[in-house]
Amino acid sequence: MRIDLHTHSTASDGTDTPAELVRNAAAAGLDVVALTDHDTTRGYAEALAALPDGLTLVTGAELSCRLDGISLHMLAYLFDPEEPHLLAERELVRDDRVPRAQGMVARLQGMGVPITWEQVARIAGDGSVGRPHVASALVELGVVRTVNDAFTEDWLADGGRVYMPKHETDPFEAIRLIKGAGGVAVFAHPAAAKRGRTVPESAIAELAAAGLDGIEVDHMDHEPATRARLRGLAAELGLLTTGSSDYHGSRKTCVLGEFTTDPEVYGEITRRATGAFPVPGTGGGRAA
Question: What is the sign of the dihedral through the CA atoms of 34, 37, 41 and 46?
Fold first, then answer.
């Protein structure tokens, strides 16, 4: 089995629609894919309606969190998307994205960059607007060469000249909310230092004690030595280890299935979840 547990669609900051994403996942030879848009499950119904035969869809979301001033992301799997407490927190985070992005646009304009809110809104479409959409606008304008080039201290990185904070959930509260909705909590790319500051391993231990289920180890932003260190830490703490692409369509260079999750780990995730269940596709043949 080939299992990719971290992907994004146009419901947040990916470039594939949810329907395109599941078709592309099938074409990439995946057996299981999790749709984990930022702070939303709005793409799930479309993905489910287009789900090809032979591909299983996992409900998910990537929750925006902050601990001691450090931004981090918590992957939530197989939770009840209508559970009111987690739903209210996701909406609070998502609703704060618009004024935050507008503030970043204003800062860029003050620096002489000819960006407009209309341009960023067009790029975001119906998705939850975020820094990648602002970064894509900078690429369109020729200010930076790639989206990744926009995530530096000169531009959009945490603490950068254009960075603005948004509402982010305390990760201990995120774990509590995910568990309360019957879900499974996995810390996304916990050592992705190229993105900015990361939490110390002592914080991961504290999150594990609070009910964290696992950490995402095999990820494009983790070097081999980092993966080995995280795998050892997970073993010490009794955490599951996952692997995934963090696919964003054409917005990033990663491809579906670039890293995958061990089937036994996936099985344990499904056993722990009580809020939702993976859905196997029956909507036609697997794409060639």
Answer: negative
**Residues across the chain:** 288
CB 239 within 8 A of CB 190: no
What is the sign, positive or negative, of the torsion defined by CA atoms of 30, 261, 281, 42? negative
Residues sharing a CB contact under 8 Å with residue 232, sequence separation 6 or more, in sequence order? none
The tens digit of pLDDT for each residue in 176-187 reads 999 999 999 999
The closest of 35, 10, 79, 73 to 245, measured between CA atoms, is 35
Q: Is 75 left (phi over 0), alpha (psi -120 to 50) or beta?
A: beta
- Residue listed under structure tokens 């004024």: 99
| CA 22 to each of CA 19, 139, 280: distance values in angstroms, whole numbers, following the listed order | 6, 27, 12
157 touches 196 (CB < 8 A): yes
**pLDDT tens per residue, range 264-281:** 999 999 999 999 999 998
Half-sphere exposure of 250 (CA within 13 A, CB side): 7
Over 114-162, what HEC string results? Answer: CCCHHHHHHHHCCCCCCHHHHHHHHHHCCCCCCHHHHCCCCCCCCCCCC
Q: How far apart are CA 144 and CA 135, in angstroms?
A: 8
Residue with tokens 């993905």: 47
Helices (H), the chain: 18-27, 44-49, 84-95, 97-110, 117-124, 131-140, 147-150, 171-180, 201-209, 224-237, 263-272
Token pair 């629609």: residue: 17
Buried b (16+ CB within 10 A) or exposed e, 127-149: bbbbbbbbbbbbbeeebbeebbe
pTM of the model: 0.86
